[in-house]
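dumping the sequnces here before i forget
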Amino acid sequence: MTPALLGSLGVSLTLAFSLLGLTLSLLAYLQGDGRFLKGARALVPLTLFGALAAFLALEWALLTHDFSLAYVARNHSVKDPLWVTLVTPWAALEGSILLWGLLQTLYTFLASRKPLGQPQRGYLDPWRASLVLAVLFGIQVFFFGVMATIASPFETLPNPPTDGVGPNPLLQNHWMMAVHPVLMYLGFVGLSVPYAYAVAAMATRRYQTWVEETRWWTLIAWGFLTAGKVAGMWWSYEVLGWGGYWAWDPVENASFLPWLLATAFLHTAIVQQTRGAFKAWNFAFVTLAFSATVLGTFLTRSGIIQSVHAFAEGPVGPAFLGFFLLSTALGLGLLSRVSREVRDVAVFHPFSREGALLLGAFFFAGWALVVVLGTFYPLLVEAFTGAKVSVGAPFFNQVSAPIGAGILLLMGVGPLLPWRRPRREVFKNLYLLLAALVLGTLLGLLRGYTLGASLAVGLFLYNTLAVGLLFAEGMRARRLAGLSPWSFLENRRRVGSLLVHFAVALMGLGIAFSQTYRLEVEKTLYQGQAWEVAGVRMAFQGVRALDEGRRFAVEALLSTDRFGEVRPRLHFYPQMQSPLPAPRVVYTPGNDYYFLLMDFDREKGEWASLRLIVTPMVFWMWVAGVLMALGTLYILWPASRPEEAKGVSPA
Amino acid sequence: MRGKYLLGLLVILGALAYMLFGGLGRNLVYFLTPSEYLQEEARYQNRPVRLGGLVKEGTVQYDKDRLELRFVLTDGVAEVPVLHRGTPPGMFKEGQGVVVEGRFQEGLFQGTNLLVKHSEAYQAPKEGWTPEEVRKLIEEAR
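..and the predicted 3d for all of it:
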């Protein structure tokens, strides 16, 4: 047994089982025969097992330096440290698809655990269960089909080299690369389950319960997508050495789309759960969110758009494009077939909870539309005029600022508004909020901030107050009901979402300030020379070279008055002609000090060019990211709830 | 009810139109070779452009104390003088394909970002570069 054999076997078996499972579950639906469904369900663990075997085979090949595999030869080197070797499966295209496929089988497995039975008692009826399985098996067929044909991770080389080049140095420069892709894939794959349920709901014309049944999945997917995005921003900031966290790169945009659409879906889904409205929107949003994950992969891997992520290009572009079109057509096609039946009959008041939720969802979806347009516009221009253009970050910033402000505004009032129509007592709170908004903005203007930054301060105060009011209200309601006010914390969904909302407001503040105020200075210093800039005094003590085996590092020794010794580095990798900067970031509550070594005297080490980037509040963005993840976790955390406090209305 | 939808649709369409004709148009960054720039100089003055070409031999001057990099960018036919503030990237050298982001101001291309384009496949042709070859080189070597 060799890794190549085991891997190919795993991929082929998973493909075969998935095809069989797809056929059986479709038969179960069409024939209405439970035996087919039983058979299909029995195949699910086998696909998980096959995918796991394939993934472990790839790890095995990497750990044993089996360079007869093309993937290992291209992305691995005997000099790689253990952690880099372990994460190399997702350092390039084929391995990433394998990881995606493995996670898909895992999610299919978890989703198929749901017991069958009468829908009234919270079980899944066999018709929908068959279709859900059929969709999930279909997705597996696609991924393992791609691996079995055009992007095999187990392709072998006739003349294996004795050592490879190792993974892209950008990826091994920071441990975050072990985390960010996995989080993203967990999020992407998580959206497949609500999508499968939605397709089943439309096909069987049972429009209501799927949203509640997949609530957990949607939140899981959203939580992972959020964590993955923030982790990616952090990586970009700490590793890429340009002092930014978001460049509106096509691939960033592509993974932003599912997040935006999933966020829209998350909010309209609440309305369907509580009021039974917005069915059509939910079907549309979940379809688009799922297909956006596929579109993202198409953009990343097809190479049609230039991107920093272009290291993982491959021949899979057309396959992913086809799959994107198919999944969109399936969802939207079914929706158009049943559109008459899912239309909202009740008229809703725009100034109500559901009105705010729908408007918020429109903002998210509109944002997604803008991002799609901006990303694809260069292709259109080239197709029509032949001119090569790119859409600059200023465009995205310009349109995103008002959309973001609108979302922050809605986020404050939305949860305070009651369902159906506004009540009088709400207005008191609204005036309070308005006062906080105005006060914060004026305060910002008085401190001499720009209008945008001042508005961000106002919006932060406004949202913090809104969260505070909702907390107070929830605790008061508990006390009036004769319960401990702290029992409000048991309303996990409410408390968790408030925490997430607060984190979003904090993130907004961080983004506004870090985008508005940023200082970037560069200077060549000679040994012993001191430089005082932006409130820091640094003296350049010299450079020092370190041989770290897989790479060669040069660090500049800077003694600073505020942060002690700081050592920004340059890393020289044998497989790259130009060095990679390894910045040193010193976070303080106000500003981040970002030290970069740009260049140095290669002969005597007497001078070095250094760059200092000072950006405010980036630290708080990472705090906000952690809070968002914690808030999501708080909602999802399995609670012992013998009976959910149904009598107490959520605010 | 119908009126509401119509209003929503109008708002969305209006926003789209604003973006497309206003925001997008102004923020398009054209990708040019020096020849293309010289054909329509006035059009590209003082707006963000990405200029691609080769660093002309013998023209590179770098002052590490003032952090000023000056060189001439060529596509074999036309030439443009470039001033870039900051350290040259590691692979920057004469004869190398580069893309500079910046603006034309006072007869000089003021670069804000310098990207080195590297390609194994391309060797300098003996009879000199043509703009088409330069464009191809830059596009393929990303």
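The helical segments of chain B are 2-26, 34-39, 131-140.
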